[in-house]
Amino acid sequence: MVKERTFFLDLFLKQCCQHQYLVQSPEFQLFLRPTEPAKLEADLKKMFAKKTQEQLAIYRKTVPINENYSDNDVKVFE
Q1: 41-72 b/e with 16+ CB inside 10 Å = b?
Q2: Full DSSP string of 55-78
Q3: What is the pTM of this model?
């Protein structure tokens, strides 16, 4: 059972590593290298207590999205 879980965790991590924005995220780095493994869950919860503007800044830095568009560029799907 442990070998199987280890195998799938390794596979999951390898798939995550194919996405640069995931690998460079503070959450992923903390998961890979926790300062104190016993406090990992508490540390992750603290990270998610970010304000909206802080989280938006992180998204803008890691996900390339063009925010300069006009209303004519937006299509409405019915």
Answers
A1: eeeeeeeeeeeeeeeeeeeeeeeeeeeeeeee
A2: HHHHHHHHS-------GGGPPPP-
A3: 0.50
